[in-house]
Amino acid sequence: MPPTSALSPPPSVLTRVLERAPTSVFVAVAVAAAFSTYFAMYAFRKPFAAATFHDQFFLGSHIALKTALVVSQIIGYALSKYIGIKVCSEVTPARRASLLVGLVAFAQTALVLFGLLPNDWKVVAIFLNGLPLGMIWGLVVWYLEGRQTSELLLAGLSLSFIIASGVVKDFGRALMDGAVANWWATVPLIGAALSRAVGQVSEGWMPAVAGFHFLPIFLGSVWLLNQLPRPSQADVAARVEREPMRGADRLAFVKQFAFGLIFLCVAYFFLTAYRDFRDNYQVEIFDGLGYPYKDNRTIISRAETIVMFGVMGVLAMLNWVKDNRHGLLCAFGIMAGGALLLGLSTALWQAKLISGFWWMTLTGLGSYLAYVPYGSVLFDRLIASTRVVGTAVFAIYLADAIGYTGSVGVQLYKDLAAGSVSRLGFFASFTWFMSALGFACLLASALYFARRTALPR
User: Which 8-state DSSP code applies to residue 52?
Assistant: First the structure.
């Protein structure tokens, strides 16, 4: 039986069933709940990036309106990560589900404002949209960390944002093209009315309409996620009990591992910016590679599906590594390998040995192999191998806050200091930089933690 707490809600019938269920059944339910929760969240965050806002500029400046929107949302998202260092580290089990629903309700309200306001004011609405969404990841991770199957659970969760970004952007394009309205028209009884209501959605209203489509999925997924039992006694023995961390606990953690964390955060500062640039401008980059979106409407989903299965396969193998120190070092090896893949794939593309599609797919695979462990298995194994009592959520949010700060800086640098460079050209140069810096920082951090975790405990 899992440990109980006075702060935990009483277990439901489904929770009691899952406590006694075979491991494979629990893993399937937990992955489905976490995956669908975070996948649905992306429908409130990313569809706006499918719009191009072509030849529109913010406040009559040289900053493209889309850049201003992307940066504004990232600023809100980055602030959310800083807020989440405290909120997500301290949240009690009884408050997680209601907080998840409240945050997404706030984000959807902001998307309605996005549709109502004129272009320059949309920047404010999209900032408000990003402000709550940065805390969703940590709240979901709380349900999955500290278990003997955490690698499988967190790998399953991580698949959600790899594939969701492409899918919800394709869904956004389908809304604007009228394809979703045509689909609704095929539904018996209510289809005709819904088809007329959806219609051919404008760039301004598309994000809110997309959010309304995914809201029922999100609510159902949060309910299922909240039925998961807490880690068992065997989980606690294998991975250390995970508890909320107060301010003094968080400061002590940073002081204890400062040197290794610095290298991790430097790499993540640029890696988050790289991943965000690729994610937000995939339409423009694919167009520059000779894949115009109007002729390749599912190209983003196809590329990201390949990436998703590649990352899932690699990270799932970590579940076979039972020793926590070895698991931590294997996670570092995967991340460093991802950084090297960025450089290798770019060299192959520039030598015309692979197509632009496969270059974008491999840069996605490399960047996500380096990026995903930060938000999942890396810090879970770090907590387990060092035997520090606390939560991986704190370390994840410390890195995320720094990472999204870097993303804002790079977005502005592109338009203000490298405005004459195409987004494709900037992305190619950024890939070379990220490969070299990422590998060096990850190697240095791996060597540091290899020594720290080798000490007697």
Answer: -
Residue-wise pLDDT for 4-41, tens only, equals 444 455 678 999 999 899 989 999 999 999 999 999 99
Ramachandran angles phi, psi of 111, nearest 5°: -70, -35
One-letter amino acid identity for 359?
Answer: W
Would you call 321 exposed, middle or buried from its count of C-beta atoms within 10 A (0-12, 13-18, 19+)? middle
Q: Where are the beta strands (DSSP E) in 24-127?
A: none
Query: What is the Cα Rg of the chain in Å?
Result: 22
Segment of 92-96, 173-177, 285-289 carrying the highest mean pLDDT? 285-289
Region class of 241: left (phi > 0), else alpha (psi between -120 and 50), else beta: beta
Q: How far does the chain reach from its first CA to its final CA, in angstroms?
A: 27
Contacts of 399 (CB under 8 A, 6+ apart): 264, 265, 268, 374, 379
Query: Within 257-376, where are the H helices?
Result: 258-280, 282-288, 299-316, 324-350, 356-371
- Nearest of 388, 349, 454, 361 to residue 146 by alpha carbon: 388
DSSP-assigned letter for residue 118 = -
Task: Look up tokens 């489509």; give the residue.
Answer: 213
Cα separation, 102 vs 92, in Å, equals 15
User: Which residues partner with 242 through β-bridges?
Assistant: 390
Please, which residues bridge with residue 390 across strands?
242
Angular region, 57: left φ>0, alpha ψ -120 to 50, beta rest? beta
Closest CA to 52 of 70, 66, 64: 66
| pLDDT 10s digits, 383-429 | 777 777 666 677 777 777 887 777 777 877 776 767 678 889 999 99
